[in-house]
């Protein structure tokens, strides 16, 4: 027998920031002519190309999975070389018209990149490098073109034909087909191209801009879903008004359309004038969406709309600059959402999300600066670091400069770079020029990865009436960056008199070096330190404050975020001690929670967040070696004590916040939240009527927030009400994909010990599919963040996840790759778990035919 050795394929190459070169060819004009069909689509592309600079290089076009039928240059057949994913065309002069005809198969596109089919709708996703799966083009963000798009399709199947810009013509053809043509006057990179063809209906509205132009708005969905777009439409109009008011940014086309599709790799996409959304961020009504879903809809609608300026009018020069548009736009959507309801609760939620997703990333094998130096697959860099830490970096600029100078900076940035592909450096420079502030050191936030740790120690000299605050920072090593420079860290601090409760000092400190000492006068009584108020910097603060001081701050600090933070720290210290085998006193936490719960001056929405214990995963993140079982036990014990000791208060809060009828308003939302949090504590107390109470809430709910809240409590119990509620929920919503996702997610997040087995069984359920990213995230994504279940000591969670990654990779590499980081946290666990996790990563890396998406994440996770 012949012994054949198959050489392993060469690992895919890195793209490096320092290798950026301007494009050799520009494409000022593009005309696209689509003959659309699900099985087969033909694309005729007419590119006007122009040599950029003095060179003799041929034209190079990107193209992936395209069947090339013909190519002409200036109307004549021409030579070309088509190799791998590149088409090389020699061009004699400095300008030419290149026409290609290609064929693609949207229905066979399971990657959901390029032109694909979702629920019978044809739609596109081009960011970052999906356009090359539609036709040949220099597919890079610094090549900006004016697009004219014509679409022809079967009229019965695809009655609605949408593209970027404004509609300029439409007509019927003889054979049951029809056509439409759209022109976008704004030059844009290919990643912002979009088209949609489908049987859609619209919620139509209009918006009058501040200069008096009328914009026609349309949110396009499947028939029957229009009623569920009201909230998204309200959010869109609010966003348009907000961007005019807060940033002076007006919308620039006569039409703005949004389309919702069920199959989408991310949340949504800001294509010029034609945003395409994952339907979960558009559709909402009280029966199917929770308050959190409503908030997410508004936040994502705002985010995509704001990209019209921060991303589209000023785009990115190359993908290393991704945070230029994403960090800034997340900051803008966070500001917008803060303005719509409770700013304090919004800040708590944003910081919680940062700590849950970005801090672990920044301390693990996939850590990267917000402006990365290299990548294998750019899709892997749509990360919490680029988005959420990126937003924190913009927020720090806002804090350091103050709102007026910050606004002068954004005005200057938009003026200077309108119509251009810009860099992070351009943004910082605009801030520097407008603010008159030297940001030389601040630029380190763009180049250095890792979460800085700040040690704070306070001493007090009562005689002199003076306090000394010593701040020292250390930025931990990250892959490729063993040694770090100190970062400029803006810290909002305050001192409170322990006896009087008075605020003795309140200031913004900019920690610039390794260490700094601050002298605070007028401090006669013993001060208590409040630091990183509002979470003014994305750092970890180690301030070594006693339980008494933290309890004091949780009751007296006038900064709501700092108050929340003090409570969290108190809870965290208690849980860490317990997980480490000590028996800490639960009293300080119980008393602080009682204090908060009985303080009638506080907003119930805030109270609900403040009394929640940190997640098991967050407790784990603080430990050298994560012990999932010990953390779970410690947290359940504290929950039980809080439930029992304060049972009367939880019961009063539960009844006090009952509502007769659903209402969507900030106070009503706060009441619902506190009610379900209280119910959770009643259940944690072990009260025998808790399952009935939860079942009653579940049965009587007139909204999804209460229903899902009750289900989320029941799903952790052994009571018979559990199965009854799960099956009632399934029967009622089995036809609604978005709600069914909740049914999968809630079970994958259960704290019950049988969750790993339940999840494995759910993966075999008729309604489970690997093809829909939302469904996959609901089951597998949720399971991978359920610390105790995923890290079951026998390794079954790891094996399950790796199997899923490998199966999904064959269909949709982007979505598969997003599941890898959970396995990459092996260094944080005991040897036995670490070996098992590494074993799965090794199995993944050794798999033939692996995508570069998964290869990059898995190989880096092992390094
Ligand atoms: N720019 C979008 C995010 C996005 C990125 C890649 C996508 O491809 C699958 C889709 C969307 C945003 O920030 O909303
Ligand atoms: Zn974005």
From TrEMBL:
<keyword id="KW-0862">Zinc</keyword>
<dbReference type="Pfam" id="PF11940">
    <property type="entry name" value="DUF3458"/>
</dbReference>
<feature type="domain" description="Aminopeptidase N-like N-terminal">
    <location>
        <begin position="87"/>
        <end position="192"/>
    </location>
</feature>
<dbReference type="InterPro" id="IPR045357">
    <property type="entry name" value="Aminopeptidase_N-like_N"/>
</dbReference>
<dbReference type="InterPro" id="IPR027268">
    <property type="entry name" value="Peptidase_M4/M1_CTD_sf"/>
</dbReference>
<comment type="similarity">
    <text>Belongs to the peptidase M1 family.</text>
</comment>
<dbReference type="InterPro" id="IPR014782">
    <property type="entry name" value="Peptidase_M1_dom"/>
</dbReference>
<feature type="domain" description="Peptidase M1 membrane alanine aminopeptidase">
    <location>
        <begin position="232"/>
        <end position="444"/>
    </location>
</feature>
<dbReference type="InterPro" id="IPR042097">
    <property type="entry name" value="Aminopeptidase_N-like_N_sf"/>
</dbReference>
<keyword id="KW-0479">Metal-binding</keyword>
<keyword id="KW-0031">Aminopeptidase</keyword>
<keyword id="KW-0482">Metalloprotease</keyword>
<protein>
    <recommendedName>
        <fullName>Aminopeptidase N</fullName>
        <ecNumber>3.4.11.2</ecNumber>
    </recommendedName>
</protein>
<dbReference type="GO" id="GO:0008270">
    <property type="term" value="F:zinc ion binding"/>
</dbReference>
<comment type="function">
    <text>Aminopeptidase N is involved in the degradation of intracellular peptides generated by protein breakdown during normal growth as well as in response to nutrient starvation.</text>
</comment>
<keyword id="KW-0645">Protease</keyword>
<dbReference type="GO" id="GO:0006508">
    <property type="term" value="P:proteolysis"/>
</dbReference>
<dbReference type="GO" id="GO:0008237">
    <property type="term" value="F:metallopeptidase activity"/>
</dbReference>
<feature type="domain" description="Peptidase M1 alanyl aminopeptidase C-terminal">
    <location>
        <begin position="548"/>
        <end position="863"/>
    </location>
</feature>
<dbReference type="InterPro" id="IPR038438">
    <property type="entry name" value="PepN_Ig-like_sf"/>
</dbReference>
<dbReference type="InterPro" id="IPR024601">
    <property type="entry name" value="Peptidase_M1_pepN_C"/>
</dbReference>
<dbReference type="Pfam" id="PF17432">
    <property type="entry name" value="DUF3458_C"/>
</dbReference>
<dbReference type="InterPro" id="IPR035414">
    <property type="entry name" value="Peptidase_M1_pepN_Ig-like"/>
</dbReference>
<dbReference type="Pfam" id="PF01433">
    <property type="entry name" value="Peptidase_M1"/>
</dbReference>
<dbReference type="Pfam" id="PF17900">
    <property type="entry name" value="Peptidase_M1_N"/>
</dbReference>
<keyword id="KW-0378">Hydrolase</keyword>
<feature type="domain" description="Peptidase M1 alanyl aminopeptidase Ig-like fold">
    <location>
        <begin position="450"/>
        <end position="543"/>
    </location>
</feature>
<dbReference type="InterPro" id="IPR037144">
    <property type="entry name" value="Peptidase_M1_pepN_C_sf"/>
</dbReference>
<dbReference type="InterPro" id="IPR001930">
    <property type="entry name" value="Peptidase_M1"/>
</dbReference>
<dbReference type="GO" id="GO:0016285">
    <property type="term" value="F:alanyl aminopeptidase activity"/>
</dbReference>
<dbReference type="InterPro" id="IPR012779">
    <property type="entry name" value="Peptidase_M1_pepN"/>
</dbReference>
């Amino acid at each position: 027998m012949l012994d054949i050795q198959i050489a392993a394929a060469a690992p895919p190459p890195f793209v490096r920031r320092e290798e950026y070169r301007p494009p050799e060819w520009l494409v000022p004009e593009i005309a696209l002519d689509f003959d659309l069909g699900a099985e087969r689509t033909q694309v005729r592309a007419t590119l006007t190309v122009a040599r950029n600079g003095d060179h003799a290089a041929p034209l190079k076009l990107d193209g992936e999975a395209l069947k090339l039928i013909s190519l002409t240059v200036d109307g004549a057949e021409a030579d070309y070389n088509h190799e791998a994913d590149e088409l090389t065309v020699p061009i004699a002069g400095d300008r030419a018209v290149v026409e290609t005809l290609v064929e693609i198969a949207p229905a066979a596109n399971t990657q959901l990149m390029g032109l694909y089919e979702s629920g019978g709708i044809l739609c596109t996703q081009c960011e970052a490098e999906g356009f090359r799966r539609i036709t040949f083009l220099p597919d890079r963000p610094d090549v900006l073109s004016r697009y004219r798009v014509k679409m022809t399709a079967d009229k019965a199947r695809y009655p609605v034909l949408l593209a970027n810009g404004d509609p300029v013509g439409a007509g019927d053809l003889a054979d049951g087909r029809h056509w439409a043509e759209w022109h976008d006057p704004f030059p844009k990179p290919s990643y912002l191209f979009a088209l949609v063809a489908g049987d859609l209906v619209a919620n139509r509205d209009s918006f009058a801009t501040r200069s008096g132009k009328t914009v026609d708005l349309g949110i396009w969905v499947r028939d029957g879903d229009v009623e569920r777009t009201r909230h998204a439409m309200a959010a869109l109009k609010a966003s348009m008004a907000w961007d005019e008011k807060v940033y002076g940014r007006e919308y620039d086309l006569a039409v703005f359309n949004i389309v919702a599709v069920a199959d989408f790799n991310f949340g949504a996409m800001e294509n010029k004038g034609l945003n395409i959304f994952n339907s979960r961020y558009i559709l909402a009504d009280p029966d199917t969406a929770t308050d959190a879903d409503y908030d997410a809809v508004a936040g994502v609608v705002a985010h995509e709309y704001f990209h019209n300026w921060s991303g589209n009018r000023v785009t990115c020069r190359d993908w290393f600059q991704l945070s230029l548009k994403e960090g800034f736009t997340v900051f803008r959507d966070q500001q917008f959402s803060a303005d719509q309801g409770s700013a304090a609760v919004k800040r708590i939620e944003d910081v919680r999300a940062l700590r849950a997703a970005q801090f672990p990333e920044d301390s693990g094998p996939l850590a990267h600066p917000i402006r990365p130096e290299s990548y294998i697959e750019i899709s892997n860099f749509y990360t919490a670091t680029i988005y959420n830490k990126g937003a924190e970096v913009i927020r720090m600029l806002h804090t350091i400069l103050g709102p007026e100078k910050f606004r002068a900076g954004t005005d200057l940035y938009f003026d200077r770079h309108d119509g251009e592909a810009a860099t992070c450096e351009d943004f910082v420079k605009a801030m520097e020029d407008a603010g008159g502030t030297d940001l030389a050191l601040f630029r380190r936030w763009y180049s250095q990865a890792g979460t800085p740790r700040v040690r704070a120690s306070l001493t007090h000299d009562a005689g002199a009436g003076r306090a000394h605050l010593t701040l020292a920072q250390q930025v931990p090593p990250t892959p490729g960056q063993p040694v770090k420079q100190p970062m400029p860290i803006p810290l909002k601090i305050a001192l409170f008199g322990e006896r009087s409760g008075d605020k003795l000092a309140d200031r913004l400190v900019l920690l610039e070096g390794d260490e700094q000492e601050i002298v605070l006068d007028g401090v006669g009584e013993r001060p208590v330190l409040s630091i990183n108020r509002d979470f003014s910097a994305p750092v970890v603060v180690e301030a070594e404050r006693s339980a008494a001081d933290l309890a004091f701050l949780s009751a007296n600090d006038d900064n709501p975020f700092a108050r929340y933070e003090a409570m969290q720290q108190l809870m965290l210290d208690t849980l860490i001690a317990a997980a480490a085998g000590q028996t800490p006193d639960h009293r300080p936490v119980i008393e602080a929670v009682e204090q908060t719960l009985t303080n009638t001056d506080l907003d119930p929405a805030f109270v609900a967040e403040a009394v929640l214990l940190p997640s098991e995963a967050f407790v784990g993140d603080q430990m050298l070696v994560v012990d999932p079982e010990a953390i779970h036990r410690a947290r359940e014990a504290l929950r039980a004590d809080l439930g029992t000791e304060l049972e009367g208060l939880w019961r009063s809060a539960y009844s006090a916040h009952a509502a007769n009828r659903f209402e969507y308003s900030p106070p009503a939302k706060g009441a619902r939240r506190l009610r379900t949090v209280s119910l959770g504590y009643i259940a944690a107390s072990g009260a025998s009527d808790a399952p009935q109470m939860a079942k009653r809430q579940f049965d009587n709910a007139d909204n999804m927030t209460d229903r899902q809240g009750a289900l989320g409590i029941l799903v952790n119990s052994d009571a018979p009400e559990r199965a009854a509620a799960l099956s009632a929920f399934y029967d009622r919503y089995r036809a609604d994909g978005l709600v069914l996702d909740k049914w999968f997610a809630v079970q994958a997040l259960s704290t019950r010990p049988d969750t790993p087995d339940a999840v494995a069984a759910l993966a075999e359920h008729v309604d489970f599919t690997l093809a829909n990213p939302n469904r996959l995230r609901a089951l597998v994504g949720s399971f991978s963040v359920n610390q105790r279940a995923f890290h079951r000591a026998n390794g079954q969670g790891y094996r399950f996840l790796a199997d899923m990654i490998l199966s999904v990779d064959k269909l949709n590499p982007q979505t598969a790759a997003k599941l890898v980081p959970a396995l990459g946290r092996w260094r944080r666990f005991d040897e036995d778990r670490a070996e098992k996790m590494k074993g799965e990563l090794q199995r993944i890396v050794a798999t033939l035919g692996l995508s570069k998406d998964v290869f990059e994440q898995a190989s880096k996770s092992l390094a």
